[in-house]
Amino acid sequence: QVQLVESGGGLVQAGGSLRLSCAASGRTFSSYAMGWFRQTPGKEREFVAAIIWTSGSTSYADSVKGRVIISRDKAKNTVLLQMNNLKPEDTGVYYCAQRESGTYGSLRTPNSYDYWGQGTQVTVSS
Q1: Among candidates 64, 103, 81, 86, which has minimal Cα distance to 15?
Q2: Residue 28's pLDDT is what?
Q3: Do 72 and 80 meet the contact criterion of CB atoms below 8 Å apart?
Q4: Residue 77 to residue 32: CA distance in whole angstroms
Q5: CB 26 within 8 A of CB 3
Q6: How confident is the model at residue 104, as a pLDDT?
Q7: Suppose 64 and one of 12, 36, 68, 75 were both cysteines; which one would form an S-S bond, judging by CB atoms 3.0 to 4.6 Å apart?
Q8: Do 70 and 50 contact (CB within 8 A), yes or no?
Q9: Is the predicted pLDDT of residue 64 greater than 80, yes or no?
């Protein structure tokens, strides 16, 4: 059992920055990777970024590459998503997710993750 709680969302103007946090608790020892996804009305859940817990290796969606940085604090069981130069297209509910298995071929697939947070709203105004 893993619990994930996101925080840090809010309303910003285009070009602004936000830092999202995801605090993990419970049985976090089996984590392989942590990911951030976002979802807007009428769209499927979209991959944003992921990080392999042990190595720190990262992966980013093309749409956010160069504007976001994912990182983790292993001691605090926390994953961060620093988002810069935000665009209105970045608006959505951002979800933190944990994946336990390292056998999946891609970190970009939402259904490859085992645990999800409740989401935090990010709104970027034009």
Answers
A1: 86
A2: 74
A3: yes
A4: 12
A5: yes
A6: 67
A7: 68
A8: yes
A9: yes
